[in-house]
Amino acid sequence: MSNQTPQVSFVEIEYKNRLYNIEYFIRAGTKGTILMIHGLGGAKENFWESMKSKDLIDYCLISFDNPGTGNSTYYDDFPLEVDDLANITADFIRKLKLTNFILTGTSMGGLTTLLYLRQADIKNIKGYINIEGNLLPEDCMFSSKVVTHQYDHFANDVFSQTIIDMKKNGNPGYYVIANNLEMNTNIKSYYHYSFQTVSYSSTGELIDQFVNLAIPRIFIYGEKNSGLSYIRRLKQMGLPASMIPGSAHFIFYDNPKALYKSIAEFAGTLE
Description:
Rossmann fold, 8 strands, 8-stranded mixed sheet, alpha/beta, 19% strand
């Protein structure tokens, strides 16, 4: 049983001749490693409750801040796209020498992880967990509201209104993410990440990639999003799809206990 105190640290990554300090947390464990990638407007703290989960107590848990959120480096004169996030994820994994791990992505992090899997040594990935990650255009609930605007208008007007609207939603997950946008997110990074999120989601290639992955995988979704069009397809194909009750899109805040129990159950099938 793990009794390790989670540690917050930095790893230095050189990418495209720029130096990035990437902040991450790690909680040591004896049963295996789960790497969790956050989405648009999120941060590593989205997964902080995972370290309180009795179901995951024996696992090594890791998550990092994408450039543009938290304390990770972002250069305003050098905008990044989701392709870059996939490459930085690969660099992070190499730096920490992660092997035989379970990869998890939520929202835009689902896109980031799928792009990473295109370049990864699949033998190094024990399993894949997609938590309402981008698969089709209907998943672009936030990014699609970004790409129709010029940057100055988005930064000066739309971004602040997005925060107001999210706080009015009445959902706890939306409220916490809104606070993260307000306090912890570089507006330019949010803007630029949105474009590839929309473009990749529009082609149908992501759902096909997920379905055809040659590793164990599971799709996890919130009860309020049970109407996603592709869930029936996944179930008809016999792919695991787990519904988390009482949750909307930000499951890790709406019902973390049930989320991490579901993740632990999936991880248990890989032992």
